[in-house]
Fold each of these.
Amino acid sequence: MSDIVIQASELHKTYDETAVPVHALRGVNLQIKQGEFTAIVGPSGSGKSTLLNIIGGLDRPSSGNIQVGGTDISTLNDNQLIDFRKDNIGFVFQSYNLIPVLTAKENVEFVMMLQGSSTEERDRRTKELMDAVGLGDRMHNRPSELSGGQQQRVAVARALAPKPTFILADEPTANLDSTSTANLLDIMARLNKEENITFVFSTHDQRVIDRARRVVVLEDGLIASDTAS
Amino acid sequence: MKWIGLAWKNIWRNRIRSIVVIGAIAIGIWAILFISGFTRGMVQNYINDSISTQISHIQIHHPKFGDDKELKFNIAEAHDLRQELLSMDGVKSATTRTISNGMISSSKGARGVNIIGIDPAEESQVTAMKDKMIEGDYLNVDKKNPIIISRRIAERLGLKIRSKVILTFQNVAQDITAGAFRVVGIYDTGNAQYDELQIYVKKEDLQRLIGVDEPIVHEMALLVNDFNAVDQVRDQIKSAHPNLLIENYKELSPDLELFNTQIKLNIVILTVIIMLALIFGIINTMLMAVLERKKELGMLMAIGMNKWKVFRLIVMETLFLSFVGGPLGLLIAFLSLQGFAQTGIDLSNWSGGLSQFGLNPIIYPDLHTGSFVFVMFSVMVTAFLASIYPARKAVKLKPVDALRAL
């Protein structure tokens, strides 16, 4: 029981802002355990982003239940959700989304600052994480001084900084060349293997799918297949 | 890295936009302070000029003299009273005057005037009339029946130094009497209304023509040591001499107070107008800053920055704009006001209209600390109010929508 990180039960999501309601999720059941390296794949409109948003506490299901680390996050209000995300979920976005006016180090320690960590703790962990993503020597560079691959590695370090329950990565390699993609996947796979960090990706990228140890395929708002290697 | 540091860095993301709004704040502040300093200077000049050349700090009259300027409404035992006042704490100097309404005539014409008989030595301790002489001498000359007149009267009556004039007025027997006087000096106070009416002669000459044996005093004018103690000294004299009419400069010339109040009100109105314009400028800038960073703000909320912190960040950024623009405006205002406080602003080209109202054409702006504090405080309040709408807009963003924004 304790090693279940994400437990989604009968998730439904309907967007009814338009004249014809769109059923993005039609009853998804998914369980992700500690230390999994899971890719959620599917064509556009399959409900992949919706599922990721609900798992990440950015959106709420129309019905069904979503538990993260044992907490039913569908019952949390906006402020509780923000706090929950801060302490439990590490986000890696497709377009890096680093804060341009801050250095790599400042970006990484940002969430720790929100958590109220001490300066010493932030300095120690930031250094550790920047070393882990191979950018120990680029701590004081701003995002504009880093390549896309380097920026995404900083984003991974930022996602790991608050010691989250799991990392949620939305198309993390979409903007990267093959070398940077391979590099990033190596780092994430190593962190997964060595530190038992749980990764959940949404992706179209075959290179990511090939490296994933579990692939969940969504189609028309339902899980079409779920394979572990 | 602290929140303040982040807010500070954020305002420099779009340098030009920030500089434009900072410039607008600085110019707004400068405009308010400069106009305020200029008008304060103008009012202060007016008050100082009025006090030094005309009304002094306190005047004492017979209670009925103001209604009907008859010779009999004089101050009894004025000499003793003057000595008593001079021995009082706070009284700097005092002068006694004999006043009669009459007419000045030359070969070119005649005009109704107030004939003021003074003791030149006493008078120069109270009024600065001596400094207003533009030609000739003050009254302390050894000539028979000397008179000083204003430049305006001299022009209208075609008079020069050494010209002879006839003064006609009522004597103590209520008969019309006349005396010949010779112009020894011409003055110009800059106040047309005043200059049109006042002429000065020696007190003893006037008394002789009036036909009194004893010195007769209709007006006593006083200067006090401390401008702020005028009311206190007035009250003190009032309680000692309840039978006399004792008035301070504001009571003698109510227009001074009205002028002062009106100017203060105008400054407040101007401040409100400029602040309103600034509010819209700041809102526009900050709204653009928020909308441009929609995706980033969504990301910040996604990774755990709560709404209060987002709100606080935007408010801080807005306040920083005023923290930079404010002191800059204060500095420019300080430097320009201080510069002009030395040299004065010469409005001679427009002085015709100004001097009609008794205003000196050279204005020395007044640096008033209270105005600087008031304007800086107003800007801070304005910036805070202007930050609320963009900050609310930021916290209303939904991370899931904001992250999708281009």
Amino acid sequence: MRIRVRLNGRTVEHDVEPRLLLVHFIRQVARLTGTHVGCDTGNCGACTVLVEGKAVKSCLMLAVQADGKDIVTIEGLANGGGLHPVQRAFIEKFGVQCGYCTPGMIMSACALLASIPSPSEFEVREALEGNLCMCTGYEQIVDAILHASTLDRGHGGPRRAPQAPHGRLGHGPGDPGRASGTTEAGHGR
Amino acid sequence: MGDSTRPLESDGVFVTSQWVGAAVPRREDARTVQGQARYVDDIDMDTAHVAFVRSPHAHARITAIDTRDAEASPGVLAVMTGRDVAAATNPVAPRGITASVTQYVMAVDKVRYAGEPVVAVVAGTQYLAEDAAARVHVDYEPLPPVVEIEEALAEGAPLVFEEAGTNVLLHDAFEHGDVAGAFRGADLVVKETFRMPRFSSTPLEPWAIIAQWDPGTGAFVVWSNDQQPGRTAINVSRTLRVPIDKVRYIIPDSGGGFGIKLAVWPYIVILCLLARRAGKAVRWIQTRSEHLLAGTHTPEALIEAELALARDGRFLAIRVNSKENDGSFVHTAGIYPLIKFAVIVGCYGIRATAFEFSTVVTNKAPTVQNRGVGKPGMTFVLERLVDLAARALDLDPAEIRRRNFVRPEQMPYTTPTGEVYESGDYPECLRRALELAGYDEWCRKRDALREEGRYLGVGIAAGIEPGTSNLGYYYISRGRPDFLGSVEGAMVGADFDGGITVVTGSVDAGQGHATTVAQVVADMLAIRPEQVSMSTHFDSATSPFAPHSGTYANRFNDVELGAVVAATRKLRAKMLRIAAFVLGVHERSLALRAGTIHVEGDPTKAVSFQEIAAYAYKKALLLPEEIEPGLREIAYYQNRAAKVPRREEFNIQLTHANAVHVVVAEVDVATGFVTLPKYVIVHDWGRQLNPGIVKGMVIGSTVHGIGAALYEEFLYSPDGQLLTGTFMDYLKPVALTVPRFDLGEMESPCPTSPLGTKAVGEGGAITSLPAIANAVEDALRPFGVTVTSLPITPEKTLRAIRGARVI
């Protein structure tokens, strides 16, 4: 099936097998490897991305279900140079150890801060319930997100979910943002 | 920054005190938060993919394997059975056990656990490899499985390894001090049987390997997230029958280790064979289901223990009989019971110890050294006995500990088995923890709330966190110590432009080693950490690694930094020699400042690192003959406190941190759920090099313990099927179920580690188990419940409240 998604502001169009998972589309077709896979069952949240501004576990969605949707991954946060405030806060508060959960944690945090700009500690912990971290014991991650909620935003965050810079995806055939060079079937590496 | 400088003393380590001890932000993180970290599966390389056919049976004979359909499947490049693998490899080498058994890295003729790899398939994509694996037909003749410890020990039990004639692959007993006399003279003996669950710290990134073979040279390149490349190099080359130089190991970013990635190497052997067979680089990314099913776990343990006491509460002796279910991996079998010795007396001055153990094999998954390795279980048992004794003697749990602690004036203190506690003030650590927790107030609150039908309990536990294994202990029962002590290597050099580069033998799986190393080197050379370059990736082709190299047993802060300090000293000495020559003065009159070496008292007479590097490389002809060109120094370091093991006296580990945890637990007696409204940790880390990193280690480790104490267990059905095989049912702590932690400060520098540091990575996972258990038991005192097992699940708690009286 041919699908077209808006990925970090860029249009990507590709033939995919119906069974291809969105996370494998992101990692193997679009070659954005910041989105990770930590389990098979949608529990760990390492694969969390924003779909239409909402945090979604990309291992629980098929690529074909993302057709026509606007997706932001961890690589799409630091547009225009500087780090997103949530990214900065994770560094400042030692919210990273092995880093494998970090992209998913940050995407969940962005979704949270878009709906609750100044969350309580409880609200942060509740919002992270779908994201497992095996290293930190969560405290420095929670502190980072609370800290991010006080930071001034340079661009995009933290007070609203990051959006693709060119707005919503159109379905016209001549979309100028179309990616090139990805023509073979979906799950190749 | 970089302000000069004390004069260089001959044995001085640091010339500035700007960076060591400061919460310097981690240099690793800018990449990570942008999704630019590179884990194995992120490597952009044309590879084929591997899928494994795994045994559906816990114990069965393989009667036939038909791979023809799989070989004809689209995109398939190679198929290998266990027999193919065995024909090309040596069997797995055991370490601890004395029984003679044969096991290969894949199942041959017989499967010993559900999930054991039987056939490996290589195809063009991951999806095609899995399709083809589903077309392999294996016929099994099921055998009666042996699942639990008691079954394995029963008369006439089926044998996991027939050639051993028994399911006990190692049995031994040690006695130090007059144990029988102490028990005869005791006023009170507290005795209980405890069960430790089978669990795992489950790194978020499962195992991952890419292997490439060069037909021209016959050499392999392996990318993996292995955490112990030194031993892996030995194991793989021995098993694969190739010299060590024929396999190059590259370890990129690694998504957590916790010991679980010490057992990746058997799969590296398989991947190398597949790469050679397929004629193409191959990639295997373990799924979470595979990880939970087949690799790897902490063994569960059945531990009988008794503590002899005098009337005044003094501990006289301890006797332990431990049986571990080591599953079915002979390489690691026997390690857990042996390492328990390190903490058999905990923080206490017990002078007589007896320890008997059996390493039992069953049809459960392989085991490996998970965070803390046996010490969480031993500390759980000891600290539970202490609380049971306090209750029997009507003593406050804090008071009975106070009466028995090794006292600060006894340091360094040698335990009956030969473990040396170098420093520490255990009573003060307890005092601080109780004060920080508001212990008396919580005890009053507990009593008051009980009137309202709320059940709170206050738990105390004191634990030792050893660091740096003296690896000879693995072999103590076999009597042929092979790996001794702990050695690490480092290379520190100045590049052609004067920048400083460090290469070590360690693997970073989230510990921030490069950040900490840069802090240390910066203060040794009076530069900024940013001027120190260190890759977070390991490469055996460039690393001066040793057979012990890797990140395990809390050895980074000791031997790895020891090697870095030693190499930096050598580099500094050479730079001073070159500077003295260039400036025409004696080395002793020189000082370092901000990337230069200058004449002390006259910063204008200076030469920059860049210029020194130019003399070392580009202008070496100008140097006097006795100064060798080049500016790269390699040093190897070992902790010299290690003893060559003898049964009468040996030390298992070489540094000893300690901690006190004070926990308040509330049990909802309607649901059985436990919450932890207060959690205090005072951990004596010797000296902190980076408080931001240390805090994360202490808390993260403690949360591993909370998981093991309250949630996590690999449960098996009677026929040996794993029942908790996903994160749906193998429950991990989440942000909402862990408390906010109060951390106290305590620093008793370690005299035998190069910078005074002690371990921080495992202590939380050790001391938290009994602290939580003690708190829950205290909360359920009105119901007369005793906690003898973990995890303390709602189901077990409700059963105990409703009549069983035992968790």
